[in-house]
Amino acid sequence: MVVALAVLSAVSTGLAAVSAAAAVRFYLRSRRMAGVSLEAVNRLLRASQVLREGLSPFAADRIVGQLHSVLDCVAVGITDADGRLLSWDGEANEHYIQLHEPIIRSIVHLRSRHVNHDKLPCQRRGNCPMRTAVVVPLVVENSLKGVLVVVGGVDGKRLIRMADQTARLVCTQLELAQLDESRQQLAQAEVRALRAQMSPHFLYNALNTIAELIRTDPEKAEELVIDFADCTRYSFRTSRLFTTLAEELRNVDRYLTLENAHYGDRLQVRLQIDPGVLFVTVPFLVLQPLVENAVRHGLAKKPGGGTITVVAQDNGTEALISVEDDGVGMDADRLADLRDAHRSGAHVGIGNINQRMRSVYGEEYALIVETAPGAGMKVILRVPKFLSHQAPLPSYLAS
To answer: Could you give the domains of the chain?
Structure first.
């Protein structure tokens, strides 16, 4: 039986995209009335993408200049959540001190403030370019990120509306930045969960096997110690969330070497690897947990053991990777509730890896599992090749 492990995913990405589109539509509508070109607005949208990394002084410097140009106003400023000025572009900067109190009020009450120039002390009453200012808090998911200040040369509701729509555009980019950060944290948490699920049976078996070989075959024991160290070092590294298929296969080779030393003839291994897909980029630690699952839950429970087959082949725009065992298999209905399987640690990593594949590549890249009682299990991954590395073959595979 074939089970496609695709379930409903979080809709936060889609909602953020809809919010961005809505903000752009509102913004374009307000700017059409002001006669600003679509090219200027597109320039602003491109510049605002720097906010996807968060509201930093660098990002503020990049965005306020574009805002000042596109809005055709006297000045634009952005502060942090505490009211400290991050960047200011334009004239009337001497009035920033008087605007500090409205900025703080806006922060405290999370409401926009409209400031009339006539109520501010000014030494150049007759020729000051400022007539009014609008202070708008930048709020993302009930969290204050900063304050937008738009200074205009004329009074009127148009400036207020323009400032509100501009703040919405900025908040949309900051919301996407927050979403990106959340997804990054989720991806790191999922990798940490996989590391935590490394089978204690594997660790115990490997160390016990090495201990026995120290007396009977010291050279073999030394080789296994190196494989064990490299395997655990690879699994617990924290530098990247992605790697190449070649590196994943190298780690699988170490793992199977250690397991083969324990199980002996009960564990047979077949590898069918197309060199053309070795440098396809894959999520880190995506393959070894599937192989470990095949050993622990497929072959270890089968009298006489069996064979693990790992295949990686070119499939046009994708790499097609499968891990198959001819072990005891399982009832496909038991795979339906992946969350329970994942939480309990049963069938290590399948639920975790399925979630990661869907998060990174989309629902259509969910794992496919073929299994039945007594018929073994086959797990299939499809990985897009658009992030592939170009590098020479590693020496252990070049031959």
So the answer is: 36-183 (3.30.450.40), 241-398 (3.30.565.10)
